[in-house]
Fold this sequence. Notes:
It is a single chain. By secondary structure, this protein is of the alpha/beta class. It has one domain: Ribonuclease Inhibitor (Leucine-rich repeat, LRR (right-handed beta-alpha superhelix), Alpha-Beta Horseshoe), CATH 3.80.10.10. 20% of the residues lie in helices and 18% in strands. It is found in: Nucleus.
Amino acid sequence: xxxxxxxxxxxxxxxxxxxxxxxxxxxxxxxxxxxxxxxxxxxxxxxxxxxxxxxxxxxxxxxxxxxxxxxxxxxxxxxxxxxxxxxxxxxxxxxxxxxxxxxxxxxxxxxxxxxxxxxxxxxxxxxxxxxxxxxxxxxxxxxxxxxxxxxxxxxxxxxxxxxxxxxxxxxxxxxxxxx
Length: 179
C-alpha cells in the first residue's frame, strides 16, 4: 500500500493540458490513500490519479484552484462528505470504473456547487434504476453525465420522479447507502 506523499507529488509529471490547466499526473503509482496534497500549494487545475488503488476520496486540503479530478480505474467506494467544502471549484470529476455501489454514496457530490461534468460509467451504481435521474435531481449544476449532455427534458423527468414530499417513497425505494 502506497500512501500519497510529498516525494510522489514532486516526482509526478507536470504539464499544461489541452484545457490550459496546469496538470499533475500521478498515474500508475500504486497509490492507495490520498494525503499531503497540501504540499502542491494549490498550484494545479487538474490532478490525474488514474490507475491506482485509491479507495476513498478524502483527506483533501482546501484546493481552490483544482477544477478537474481524474480517478479512472481505481477502487473508489467512498466520497467524503466535505468534498464540496475542500474542493469548492471542482467542475469535472472522472470516476469511470470504480466501486461506488449505491446511489446514496454519490450524495456528497451535491455539495460541489460548480460540478458540471461527471463520469461514473463502470461503477455498480451506474446500473441502478433511475441512476441518471437521481444524479440530475441531486447535483443541479450537472451539464454532462457519462459523456451525455443533460437536456431540459431530463431535468423535468428527474424532478417528476424525485422532487416533492409525494415522491419521498421514490427516494427511499431507489436510493441506498453502502455501509
